[in-house]
Design brief:
Layout (H helix, E strand, L loop, with lengths): L15 H12 L6 E5 L5 H7 L6 E5 L12 H10 L13 E5 L2 E3 L6 H5 E3 L1 H7 L4 E3 L1 H5 L3 E5 L6 H13 L1 E6 L2 E6 L3 E6 L8 H4 L4 E5 L5 H16 L1 H7 L1 H17 L7 H14 L5 H16 L7 H11 L16 H14 L1
Parallel strand pairs: 1-10, 1-11, 4-7, 7-10
Antiparallel strand pairs: 2-3, 5-6, 8-9
Amino acid sequence: MNKQYTYPFTAIVGQEQMKLALVLNIITPTLSGVLIRGEKGTAKSTAVRALADILPEIDVISGIPFNLAPDEESDVIRECFAVAGELLPETGTPLLVEKHKVKVVELPVGATEDRVVGTLDLEHALKAGEKRIEPGLLASAHRGILYVDEVNLLDDHVVDVLLDSAAMGVNTIEREGVSFAHPARFTLVGTMNPEEGELRPQLLDRFGLCVHIEGISDPEKRVEVMERRFAFEEDPETFCRAWADESARLVERIAMARKLYSSVSVSRENLMAIAQYCLEVGVDGHRGDIIILKTAKTLAAYDARATVEKQDIDQAAMLALPHRIRRQPLQDIVMDVGSMLKNKACDRVSG
């Protein structure tokens, strides 16, 4: 069987904000994902699928299909082994642990609720008195990336499932009074074309970051896009090999940033700047403040710095606030937060 090659993440021309937002979520999964808005043919799906080659490795308990970490609660591990029909190692015997790359799990727009959540074998439960389940996409996405292309076209019942799991970090499968719950903590990445409709506000708020991308207007860059894509399609193995070193450098930089993140410090002055940003643009609640803080710390770690600077906060606000700014009915998402703040400042001066 011929190997399937994925277009390298580092070979994507332009779209720097999109690539940065995705990398930041690899470094800090608690950023809660990214919504990528843009017209067709702007490498949105290509970029997300290309993440597979630059994602880090994690420890996963082998033998069960739930991507559980070795430090999950013992009751959770025991229950997951049971519903998978596998025997839990005897007390005192260490669990078998494998190294797996973080997964990118794609959720098709037309996926049924059972496909997303999983199904419970009610017949087996009634006959044997034991729970058996067929895990869904949320089980595969635990500790990974759940990718939804055309996320704005998802059925409402699937959106409700995603909202529940994103809020609780748990997926519950229920049927005829029999239920089972397993961890489902994932980074949600969605792509969409705004011309096809907007997202429900509840789901929009679950994305930590939001970027809007457009087709490249520089003719030289557009030619570069064509040349690289043609080279990849003609000989994907050679093309991927040519970008292997740059991909390896990015993987190393991400790994270093993941280690540094927890030690990055933020001054009270910069915390005040974050709060002021959110007040200026009219953000509801406090989620925006927290996401800006995490994003600013991640940007500093990505640049190998141990202290957050004002430039990190400015850049973080551009990524974290567009979809959180209070809007009038039918008003589009305000993507240029910087211009909005300048206009407000000018209004205060002129007033």
